[in-house]
Structures are given as C-alpha cells and as structure tokens.
Amino acid sequence: MSQRDLFHHAVVIELEKENWRVTHDPYFLEYGAQTLQVNLGAEMPVAAERNGHKIAVEIKSFVGKTEMSEFYGALGQFILYRNVLRKQEPERKL
C-alpha cells in the first residue's frame, strides 16, 4: 500500500462532517493487469432520491521540491482514474 498523503486524515474528517460516508480507504481500480489505488471512495445519500451520489477522492498536498512536476503527475493520475471510473463505475465521480 502506498504512503498516505499529508492531509489524508483531515480530508476524511471533513467528508464525514459533510455527511459523506467513506466506503473505501483506499479505493482500488483495475486497469488491465494493473491495480490503481485512489485514496478514498465515499458516498452521500440524497434525501429525495433512492440512489446516492458516489465519489472517489485522490488527495494531493504538493509539498515536494518541484510543485509543477507534482502537478503534472497529479493531472495524469486524475485523467487516468477518471477514464477508468467512467468505464468501471460511471456513477462515481472523481
């Protein structure tokens, strides 16, 4: 399992304060022979609907030496995770 981001715990607390229920920590996606690991999966019931909203949360702090390099890496992760989610679980938003 990869190391958790500096702000992982704080993000979980804030999601729970907003009535999100963390369902996966981490949230795994299959991409061919690879297993991808998004930091969190969460869902929040919507009172007027039967189906709740679902999200996947990738947490980044950008505290390294090269912020632009970290940004490009995070952007690449976002694009990959979003594309895989659209195929595997389209109701879950990143």
What does this molecule look like?
The protein is built from 2 helices and 6 strands. The strands form 2 sheets. The chain has a 4-stranded mixed β-sheet, with helices on both faces. With 94 residues, the chain is an alpha+beta fold. β4 (40-44) and β5 form a beta hairpin. The chain has one domain (8-93): Trna Endonuclease, Chain: A, domain 1.
List the helices and strands and how they pair.
Layout: H1 8-17, E1 21-24, E2 27-31, E3 34-38, E4 40-44, E5 53-57, H2 67-88, E6 92-93
Parallel strand pairs: 5-6
Antiparallel strand pairs: 1-4, 2-3, 4-5
Low-confidence segments: none
Measured distance between first and last alpha carbons: 20 Å
Q: What average pLDDT do the residues reach?
A: 83
Order of helices and strands: HEEEEEHE
Which tags fit this structure?
single chain, 94 residues, alpha+beta, Trna Endonuclease, Chain: A, domain 1, 4-stranded mixed β-sheet, 6 strands
Concise account of the structure shown:
With 94 residues, the chain is α+β, with helices and mostly antiparallel strands.
